[in-house]
TrEMBL record, chains A, B:
Species the sequence originates in: Mucilaginibacter segetis
Domain Putative oxidoreductase/dehydrogenase Rossmann-like: 2-106
Domain named DUF2520: residues: 124-248
Protein name: DUF2520 domain-containing protein
Top-rank taxon, per record: Bacteria
Pfam family, one: Rossmann-like
InterPro entries (UniProt xref): 6-PGluconate_DH-like_C_sf, DUF2520, NAD(P)-bd_dom_sf, OxRdtase/DH_put_Rossmann_dom, TM1727-like_C_sf
Length: 260, 260
């Protein structure tokens, strides 16, 4: 397909590289920041532009990978072309595009992207949704050229998926950070925890999380929990976080015994 | 060394297998439950016992891998032998053993163990502490026979380490579970999230967590956070958890821009 990328952030960067590598032609890369457009366009052999009036209409799809709150405005500006447009956001409904065109879809990669880290795009779950069946089919076929994990997900499901990803990824990473700071404050290195973090994630590749829950809360080890809360006396916010997470674990397990 | 294992849970099981495989002799396995003693003793070619009076004094070390609140009582019962004893707990001080003997130490594996999953013990961080330098050296040498990651950690540091592990492992796994339940309630499969969880853990192998924090909170995307809080209207506890974690991320980042 001939593909136009709107955006130059992490999603735009990883997605356009994957599409290019799958044999598609990246026609143009649009960014408000021409330097960012130049850089990404250079890597995927596309034309960089920083103004929508420069859009080349000889394209099959606009992939809109911009901040959530900019999706509607971009759609409004692109509506005149009557070319298929798909946004890549977890939390924006397809309706935001449908306000401007019937030729709308969603192409949502459920992964955390950083400019500083490569990943295997074929493992990235791609969630597609089309305004009609033909669009859904087109997006699904496009998705399969870059990923082995393609799902049809409607806008309501996608919002839940995005929320659950905030818990499983963003909040999880923050807890890694809490742990790292606790160690740093006591002159210990984050390397000590890295094998534990890797193993914790590895366990849920085969198991459901509740099956492998460990720790003081699931054992209802009140003594250890009280000691930990005392240790956090100088960090009321972490103390509250500890209390809330422990309560939620206890509530979920209802007497099941955890591993050590 | 000739090693006696006190306990038959996950830590006892993984540790005795690693010690046996490193060429040490597991003399006896003690458990209050003779069936569990039998099973573990069978795997490591040791004698199973369920009564401390049956302890064979021809051993170099008692490794006490029992519940935290049973460590003191076991130490009291073993004190008469005047043989080196080391417990394996993150949250119990060395002083709990020193109440009964000077021949005391700690041999704490910082990892999450399940009976249902194998792991590479050589990657497990082992944190050792001795009541004197000679004991520390003995435990450190023993630790190096089974792990590449051996640390000297005193009791105060170990308590912090254990607390940080609760955040990085136990609480993290619970957040995986929250995400899985959100998906299940909306007929979506946990498989959709597994690549994201793996990548989130993978990122902090090279980076510090704060460097790779992503999501609505670090972007200060109020609109998305408000939408998510509304979606959790029927789960006040999760709503509070979402609010608290987001506040803590915002507090930690102070205006730093996150990746998408």
């Amino acid at each position: 397909m001939r593909i136009t990328i709107i955006g130059s952030g992490n999603v735009a960067t990883h997605l356009s590289a994957a599409l290019k590598n799958a044999g598609h032609k990246i026609v143009q890369v649009y960014s408000r920041n021409i330097n960012k457009a130049n850089l990404l366009a250079y890597h995927v052999a596309a034309e960089p532009i920083d103004d929508i009036v420069l859009i080349d209409a000889n394209t099959d799809i606009f992939i809109i990978a911009v901040n959530d709150d900019a999706v509607g405005e971009i759609a409004r500006q692109l509506a005149g072309f009557d070319i298929l447009m798909a946004h890549t956001s977890g939390s924006v409904g397809i309706s935001t595009l449908q306000a401007f065109t019937d030729n709308a879809g969603v192409f949502y990669p459920l992964q955390t992207f950083s400019t500083t880290k490569e990943l295997d795009f074929r493992q990235v779950p791609l969630c597609v949704e089309g305004a009609d069946e033909l669009i859904t089919k087109t997006l699904e076929e496009l998705a399969r050229t870059v990923s082995n994990n393609v799902y049809q997900v409607n806008s309501e499901q996608r919002k839940i998926l995005h929320l659950s990803a905030v818990f499983a990824c963003n909040f999880t990473n923050h807890l890694y950070g809490v742990a790292q700071q606790l160690l740093a404050e006591h002159n210990m290195d984050f390397n000590m925890l890295r094998p534990l973090i890797a193993e914790t994630a590895d366990k849920v590749k085969q198991h459901l999380p509740a099956e492998v829950q460990t720790g003081p809360a699931v054992r209802k080890d009140e003594q250890t929990m009280q000691k930990h809360l005392q240790m956090l006396d100088n960090s009321p916010q972490l103390q509250e976080l500890y209390r809330l997470l422990s309560q939620d674990i206890i509530k979920n397990t209802n007497g099941r015994n955890g591993d050590k």
